[in-house]
Design a protein that fits this description.
Blueprint lengths: L3 H7 L49 E2 L3 E13 L7 E6 L8 E4 L3 E8 L7 E4 L20 E6 L6 E7 L5 H6 L3 E7 L1 H4 L9 E9 L19 E4 L2 E2 L2 E6 L1 E8 L6 E5 L5 E6 L2 E9 L2 E3 L4 E7 L8 E6 L6 H4 L1 E10 L21 E9 L9 E3 L11 E3 L4 E8 L6 E5 L5 E5 L2 E2 L11 E4 L4 E7 L5 E6 L3 H5 L3 E6 L1
Amino acid sequence: MISRRSLLRAGIGTAAAVGGGGLVAPLLTAGVARAADLDPATIVKYAVPMPLIPVLKPSMVSAGTSYYGVTMQETAAQILPGAKTRVLTYGGSFPGRTIKATTGRHTVVRQVNALDSPTAVHLHGAHVPPEHDGSPMDLIAPGGRRNYTYPNTQSHANLWFHDHAHHYESEHVYRGLSAFYLLTDRAEQNLPLPSGEFDVPILLRDARFDADNQLVYVMDDFLNRNTILVNGKPWPYFQVAARKYRFRVLNSTNLRFLTLKLSNGGSFTQIGSDGGLLATPHETNELKLSAGERADIVIDFAQYPVGTSIELINEQGPGPMEHVGKVMRFDVTRTAKDDSSVPATLRTLPALAAATVNRTIDLRMDEDGRPEPKAYINEKLYDPNRVDTEIRYGTTEIWTVRNVNQFAPHNFHMHLVQFRVLERNGRPVTSGPESGLKDTITLTAGETVKLQATFTGYRGEYVYHCHMFDHGAMGMMATMKIV
């Protein structure tokens, strides 16, 4: 029998019961007898092509604004070969279609809620006014609609939008409410990076299916979500030319941490993180992403002969590694001209301002085996009626964020701002994947990170929380007010 301690050591904290900090009954399965689980071994790996996520076209364009209409709706998608699976979608697509935006041009998205439960659409990583942030309690009721306006005043970044309705976010996102929002600017466009068909968004997630090919949702079910989906398909292949590709990778899972590598041990170049390009490229042979984190990487397939196949693998559990250890396969099928390159300098990051305020943020969840565990920030459960941190507009602060658990990992996401990582476990961060602009950061058990952010642009209330969705639903969330 697997003990709770061994599960926690495997990499994810648990929340076995919903309790006061959990969710309502699963949305699509409440009161319905469920079929037995589908064995992931019955899904043939590398048998289906990886789809490219379509780009959503605006319904109207003016001199300074692009307008979009999206309906949140339940639909049937073909995820597993020859079967239909009920999912929740933005506009009927699983995953949602990508919105492409440009710094300096406004985006207005009319979101219509055609679901039976409330929603809140959060543009993750965006610098937006509080009324357009998708706060966990700022809900769109079933049958309602809302216009979200995104000023796009920040520099380029790989953002994404997802549901954030408190007590619903975990299941809503698991069932499909997530999509890319790619913000670009002239500085990024002027670089000779791979572009066009060679610039490919990749949305990663895990899933659990029953024998009727339906998604199974259970709170904190990290051990049984053992089917890996890439752009909505299980373990696909992707045919590439022998040249450089840019891949924008999003870990959209609820809970899973990923350590991605090429199966042949080959290296690649990380060029960006949550908040856009790094200052300089980072050569590596692995990519670590917790739930909600993004990374830009460039893989040069020119070093491999046509006919080569290379797997993208994941070296981090939990789960059977014959399933969760495999992600997708790249097949080099042709040659192609390549005028792209990765410059030695990608951007100049903003200078760090002088900080005048220091704060300590402790993340902790119950890990003593109690039947209804909770999760806390500074020993407090989330209360939407309470302001936990008051911040003076325009100030620069340093937050020391600590995971005080013995076994459970967490991560940390701040709304409104991108931050800089100053230290990890007492060691300065001056280069590498955490040296750029970030909005989500990993903290395994016992780890400490020191972050710096400047709070400008908008006044009002925003949340900060663990972005392992179930931990947030269990109470690991707090409110800051910019005054």
